[in-house]
Amino acid sequence: MASSKDGCSLSYKKKVKRDTENRNQDTTQNKSFYIKG
User: Fold this and answer.
1) pLDDT per residue as tens digits for the range 1-27
2) DSSP state letter for 30
3) Cα(10)–Cα(15) distance, rounded to whole angstroms?
4) Hey, CA dihedral for 15, 16, 19, 24, is it positive or negative?
5) d(CA 8, CA 20)
6) 8 Cα distance to chain centroid
7) What pLDDT is recorded for position 1?
8) Which residues lie in Polar residues bias regions (predicted)?
9) What is the CA radius of gyration of the chain?
10) Which helix (H) or strand (E) holds 27?
11) Residue pair 33/19 in contact by the 8 Å Cβ criterion
12) Average pLDDT over residues 21-35
C-alpha cells in the first residue's frame, strides 16, 4: 500500500509540475486564466 501511495504521489507531482508549466505559458496569453487558476 505504501508503494502504491508513493506512485500516486510521484504521478501527482509530475501532474502539478506539468500544470504549472502550462499555466506559466498561458500567463503571457491569458493572465485572467492564470489568476483564476
Assistant:
1) 455 566 678 888 899 899 888 877 766
2) -
3) 9
4) negative
5) 18
6) 14
7) 45
8) 25-37
9) 14
10) helix 2-27
11) no
12) 67
Burial 3-26 (b: 16+ CB within 10 A, else e): eeeeeeeeeeeeeeeeeeeeeeee
**Cell numbers at 5, concatenated:** 501511495
Question: Kindly report the CA angle at 37 between 16 and 22, in degrees rounded to 5?
Answer: 50
Residue linked to cell 509540475: 17
Domain ranges of the chain: 10-36
User: All 3 cell numbers of residue 13?
Assistant: 507531482
Q: How many residues does the chain have?
A: 37
Average pLDDT over residues 28-37: 59
Nearest 5°: CA angle at 14, between 7 and 6? Answer: 15
